[in-house]
Design brief:
307 residues, 5-stranded mixed sheet, 23% helix, globular, 6 helices, alpha/beta, 31% strand, 8-stranded mixed sheet, Rossmann fold
Length: 307
């Protein structure tokens, strides 16, 4: 299990009855979480007067109940390899999101030292080139840029790409080169193959289901293997790392490991591992010792590195 437990501006305060109580900076939110299938007593005081609550609808989707929450606010993350904090702008998005998945900090702390070490080995003459696909609001893009990489950020949503640019600037990375592109990920990779472009590292955070800018249907179980085989054609001769994330219910970490092993990592040696991502619950709803405190599962990742 990879635990994102270094946050100062974020924490899961409690969870019960299909919901989690979270602190995002100065604001407390209640959001649904399908993993929370227990109904423990909601003893934490934050349940009584949160700043915002996302209510699910019986017909699908849902809506925010805003009580005392600004339209936008920011939080920061102090990375394990300090330079300056990563800063992320937040707001209550549709479908319960805020614009950030805090559990991914565990992955940022993994790949940032790899980029920094490789940049030092190259004596800053040849930047590490990172391809971030399904890149959303750019948490991984900012982390890679902070470590010194030149990142190509690709997502099908124009709004999310714009938000990612703002997060990149908020983290003080304006002088670190990066490309932000609105595109279908598979079509972009196909064009990069024709152009002869290569990347030293690839980060993928594909949705379970979605549509591209032209209405292209994406279903992870049907599309991910072929996409990974395609991406292999834009991987450099001596790649540094690969990261594959999934929030698809029922897709085990070992499945992600096998996908990466069969495609991106094939023939490169190196080290591959896979596990769940998780967040600690900082309250004590279990009423026990620290070993008995709750840990909230938040998807899975497979990681490959050359060293």
């Amino acid at each position: 299990m990879w635990l994102a437990d270094r946050w100062r501006d974020y924490e899961v305060l409690d969870c019960s009855g299909g919901e989690k109580l979270e602190r995002w900076g100065s604001y407390v939110l209640v959001r649904p979480d399908p993993q929370v299938i227990w109904n423990s007593p909601k003893t934490h005081g934050g349940w009584k007067n949160p700043n915002g609550i996302y209510h699910r609808s019986d017909k699908g989707g849902g809506s925010w109940e805003i009580r005392d929450l600004p339209q936008e606010w920011s939080i920061s993350y102090d990375t394990a390899q300090p330079a300056r904090p990563l800063t992320f702008r937040l707001k209550p998005f549709q479908f319960k999101h805020t614009g950030l998945f805090p559990e991914q900090a565990a992955n940022w702390d993994w790949f940032m030292p790899l980029i920094q070490a490789e940049t030092k080995r190259r004596k800053n003459t040849d930047p590490v080139r990172v391809l971030n696909l399904f890149a959303y609001t750019g948490g991984a893009t900012a982390a890679a840029g902070m470590a010194g990489a030149v990142t190509t950020h690709v997502d099908a949503s124009k709004g999310m790409v714009g938000w990612a640019k703002e997060n990149y600037a908020a983290s003080g990375l304006e002088r670190v080169p990066a490309r932000f592109l609105v595109d279908d990920c598979a079509k972009f990779v196909q064009r990069e193959i024709r152009r002869g472009k290569t990347y030293d590292a690839v980060i993928l955070d594909p949705p379970s289901y979605g549509r591209g800018p032209g209405g292209e249907v994406w279903k992870l179980e049907d599309c991910i293997y072929d996409l990974l085989k395609l991406i292999r054609e834009v991987v450099s001769d001596r790649p540094l790392f690969f990261l594959l994330n999934s929030y698809t219910t029922g897709l085990q970490p070992l499945v992600l490991r096998d996908l990466v092993s069969l495609t991106l990592a094939a023939g490169h040696g190196g080290r591959i591992e896979a596990d769940e991502l998780a967040l600690p619950v900082t309250g004590d709803p279990a009423g026990g010792s620290s070993d008995a405190r709750l840990i909230l599962p938040c998807g899975a990742s497979a990681r490959w590195s050359a060293h």
